Amino acid sequence: MESSHPAINHRSRRTAPSSHARAAVCTALGTLISFGAAAQAADTACGNPFVNGYGPYDYRSDQQKLKIVEDYHFTPRVESLVGGAAGSVGADLDYTLRAFPNHHRALLSMMNLGAKAKSPMPPGAQVSVECYFRRALVFRPDDAIARMMFATFLARNGRKPEAVREVDFSVQGAPDNAFTQYNAGLIYLEMREFDKALIQAHRALALGFERPNLRQQLQAAGKWVDPPVAPGAASASAVTSVAPAASAASGPLR
Fold first, then answer.
1. Which domain range does residue 214 map to?
2. How many whole angstroms separate alpha carbon 103 and alpha carbon 92?
3. Domain finish residue from 138, 157, 176
4. What is this structure's pTM?
5. Tens digits of per-residue pLDDT, 186-213?
């Protein structure tokens, strides 16, 4: 299912983090000690995300546990904020996010519900919208999608320095994930961090991710610069272009 947030696509919940990505996150955690304090605050002010009657489960990998929640609580009507299923929209989203704290689409819906209600804790929610994000990240700190969504939430609420730190953290935690690198660029761009967005566009291209949207938006903003050519590639190109000329010059004697 498609989503309005760039970090989510219909395959996101099927992709569990690789061992390499987990190792990268551990390294990043060692350099960003402040996240430890955030986790502790989430456990006290936002409740413990590891305790729930059903689950909690990881949205990315626990597929066999997901259907019952989505059938009875996170229905299409709930996701689009049209109406509740077992209760109010907020209550059904709360149930979903307690069972699957890092449910990407439910996090997006809760963020949208808060914006629609113009409230940090919309009707039916048991904690603030920010708390649902913090709970998700305490539950699974290596979830780059949840973290980038949190960055979007922070940026839209006038907390750009915090938002930039969250995206920086996501980039460090998934250095070989082209999808993460590309979407980090889109979020930097939304925050008008053009230099960072350009770096991410180059990284995504280097990893083989050639979707044009980020480049086109940087071009429209007058901020696009072609990535530098690697020295080895430049040498190979020069040899390739010289060889035909040399061959022509040394053609058969008449």
1. 180-248
2. 13
3. 176
4. 0.77
5. 999 999 999 999 999 999 999 999 999 9
